[in-house]
């Protein structure tokens, strides 16, 4: 990898490569003994006063090199090329090398950001690899609720970050259209459908009581008339179940699209049990693999996955005594299909907290049936509590039942909903402040970030109207601390993308968005606090104006990219 490569590696990687090359040069020159180097040799210091990057490599090599850390630091620093990317290194006790980016390099990165445009911050971490992110996947038996919205924001943003990291990504919704819950759904829908025709029937015990089932039956009645009515005492035609699920999936799809989320594939659970073109079904193939490897046992008339032999505290049923597969059996076949049949290199399942108890057995079964369990990552997100000030909101004003994702989006908008869902780590429970989410002030982080983007657009629009343009601007004229600080913040984005793509924690993008907006507001406020016209973006000096407009253009690109990765709009006006 060339240390001058700028389009596919993070800046941290480039600086780290310079330090590693310097250490190897010191070994070759005899200033250091020949010792192995760790993979990561630089990090960002907590205190920016210590530089843009710092290396603790001298401390880490002290034992193997049998030299004082400060002496190792001096040997490495002597071989670091200062000027192009970094300034002269600074050595700090007890053995750190502090590294500051060269001013000319920082200035030149503005041009690179503009040149890359919407692809700015792309890296090659996952180049040549196929990833699948499966998220939401709520049963098609009711509308999506607020908790599903958190899963949608997490999964969609994670998929976008993986794409920016070089992966070819497929977003997938797993439609649970098989099993007992859809049987109960069909029975409930048929009762409501009969009621639409004036028949005196009751919802079956254990059925779905929600008002949405009445609405669904009404839609079915309006579309099909009485065509789906069976004779007295007869079961409904199977078509009613299919049409009901189809309508429910259609509603779920509309809800998610209104939330800014779309999928490359909607995968039917039933397809796992249906042989394609005369071949063996995915279910039979997966169970055949487990049986051949000795991981299945028949007991008590049922078929069990012998997970206790692999470290679980108990075995798990895959085929009930009545011959029906369990949901766990579907999970096994589904993950075999993902990793073996479709051959994804990385599979991420985004599940709600109520599925926590299933994680271990699915991971174990995936390893047993594919031999590639390390490719599966199950991300659990915690519950959402809606609040208005200090008051917890539990029920829909409209129906007196659960608050749907549609209602949340209607009240606060998709951008605010997505951002607030992303603001906390998936593993943390979160309070969603409805009042804060609609505030038009800097207290609201969504407004704060989007206003920064709108302000950047406004500066460029005003400049254009006054005959100024960023094209041809000489970025070497930008030397003020607040100008270079804004560029330095932009240059962090590839590292944030890498962090999200390796930890599967999309909250880092939300936090970074706030920090980048803060850097712009500080940049803008620095001009506004001065009475000197030469310290504004648009000045009487055409060359300086063009240079500063170039910085504004780059900042708009960077902030727009962050908003896009989170699935949010980047407004031009507010």
Give the low-confidence spans: 1-6
Give the strand order of the largest sheet, numbering strands 1, 2, ... along the chain.
Answer: 6-5-4-10-11
Sheet with most strands: 5 strands, parallel
What is the radius of gyration?
Answer: 29 Å
Share of helix among residues? 40-55%
The DSSP helix count reads 19
- Termini, distance in Å? 44 Å
Task: Kindly identify the CATH topology of the domain at 441-565.
Answer: Isoleucyl-tRNA Synthetase, Domain 1
Per CATH, the architecture of the domain at 441-565 is Orthogonal Bundle
Mean of residue pLDDT values: 94
What is the CATH top level name of the domain at 441-565?
Mainly Alpha
How many distinct beta strands?
A: 14
Shape: globular
What percent of residues are in strands? 5-15%
The helix-and-strand class reads alpha/beta
CATH superfamily of the domain at 441-565: Isoleucyl-tRNA Synthetase, Domain 1
Quick overview:
With 574 residues, the protein is an alpha/beta fold. 47% of the residues lie in helices and 11% in strands. Among the domains are: 11-101, Gyrase A, domain 2 (2-Layer Sandwich), CATH 3.30.1360; 441-565, Isoleucyl-tRNA Synthetase, Domain 1.
Question: Can you tell me about this structure?
Answer:
The protein is of the alpha/beta class and 574 residues long. The strands form 4 sheets. A 5-stranded parallel sheet has the order 6-5-4-10-11, with helices on both faces. A 3-stranded antiparallel sheet has the order 1-3-2. It has helices at 11-28, 57-65, 69-77, 103-116, 146-164, 180-196, 211-224, 238-258, 282-292, 327-341, 359-370, 405-412, 414-422, 434-437, 445-465, 481-490, 493-503, 507-528, 542-565; strands at 53-55, 90-92, 96-99, 130-135, 168-175, 265-268, 296-299, 302-305, 316-319, 346-352, 376-381, 384-388, 391-393, 430-433. It contains 19 helices and 14 strands. Among the domains are: 11-101, Arginyl tRNA synthetase N-terminal domain (Gyrase A, domain 2); 441-565, Isoleucyl-tRNA Synthetase, Domain 1.
């Amino acid at each position: 990898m060339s240390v001058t490569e700028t389009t596919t590696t993070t800046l941290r990687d480039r600086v780290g490569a310079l330090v590693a090359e310097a250490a190897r040069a010191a070994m070759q020159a005899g200033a250091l003994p020949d010792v192995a180097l760790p993979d990561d040799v630089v990090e960002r210091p907590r205190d920016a006063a210590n530089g843009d990057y710092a290396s603790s490599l001298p401390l880490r090599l002290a034992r193997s090199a049998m030299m004082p850390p400060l002496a190792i630091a001096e040997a490495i620093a002597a071989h670091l090329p200062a000027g192009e990317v970094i300034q002269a290194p600074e050595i700090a006790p007890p053995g750190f090398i502090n590294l500051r980016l060269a001013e000319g390099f920082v200035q030149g990165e503005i041009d690179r950001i503009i040149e890359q445009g919407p692809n700015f911050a792309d890296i090659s971490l996952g180049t040549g690899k196929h990833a699948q992110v499966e998220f939401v996947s709520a049963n098609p038996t009711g509308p999506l609720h607020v908790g599903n919205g958190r899963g949608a924001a997490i999964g969609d943003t994670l998929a976008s970050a993986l794409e920016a990291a070089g992966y070819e990504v497929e977003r997938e919704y797993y439609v649970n259209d098989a099993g007992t819950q859809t049987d109960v759904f069909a029975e409930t829908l048929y009762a409501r459908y009969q009621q639409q025709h004036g028949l005196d029937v009751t919802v079956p015990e254990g059925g779905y009581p929600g008002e949405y089932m009445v609405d669904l039956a009404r839609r079915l009645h309006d579309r099909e008339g009485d065509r789906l009515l069976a004779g007295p005492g007869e079961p409904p035609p199977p078509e009613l179940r299919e049409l009901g699920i189809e309508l429910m999936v259609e509603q779920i799809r509309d809800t998610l699209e209104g939330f800014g989320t779309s999928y490359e594939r909607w995968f039917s659970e039933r397809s796992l049990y249906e042989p394609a073109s005369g071949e063996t079904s995915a279910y039979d193939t997966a169970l055949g693999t487990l049986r051949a490897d000795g991981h299945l046992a028949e007991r008590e008339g049922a078929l069990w996955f012998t997970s206790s032999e692999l470290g679980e505290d108990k075995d798990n049923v895959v085929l009930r005594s009545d011959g029906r597969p369990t949901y766990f059996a579907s999970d096994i076949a589904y993950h075999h299909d993902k990793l073996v049949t479709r051959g994804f290199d990385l599979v991420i399942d985004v599940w709600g907290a109520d599925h926590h108890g299933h994680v271990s057995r699915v991971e174990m079964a995936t390893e047993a049936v594919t031999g590639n369990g390390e490719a599966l990552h199950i991300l659990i997100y915690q519950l959402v509590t809606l609040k208005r000030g200090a008051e917890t909101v539990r029920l829909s004003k409209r129906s007196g039942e659960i608050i749907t994702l549609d209602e949340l989006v209607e009240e606060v908008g998709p951008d605010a909903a997505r951002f607030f869902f992303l603001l906390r780590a998936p593993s943390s429970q979160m309070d969603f402040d409805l009042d804060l989410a609609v505030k038009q002030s800097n207290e609201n982080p969504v407004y704060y970030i989007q206003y920064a983007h709108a302000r950047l657009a406004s500066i460029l629009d005003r400049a254009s109207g006054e005959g100024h343009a960023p094209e041809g601007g000489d970025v070497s004229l930008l030397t003020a601390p607040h100008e270079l600080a804004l560029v330095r913040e932009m240059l962090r984005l590839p590292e944030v993308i890498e962090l999200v793509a390796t930890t599967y924690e999309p909250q880092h993008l939300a936090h970074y968005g706030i920090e980048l907006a803060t850097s712009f507001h500080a940049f803008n406020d620095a001009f506004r606090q001065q009475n000197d016209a030469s310290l504004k973006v648009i000045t009487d000096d055409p060359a300086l104006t063009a240079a500063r407009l170039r910085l504004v253009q780059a900042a708009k690109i960077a902030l727009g990219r962050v908003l896009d990765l989170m699935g949010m709009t980047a407004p031009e006006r507010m």
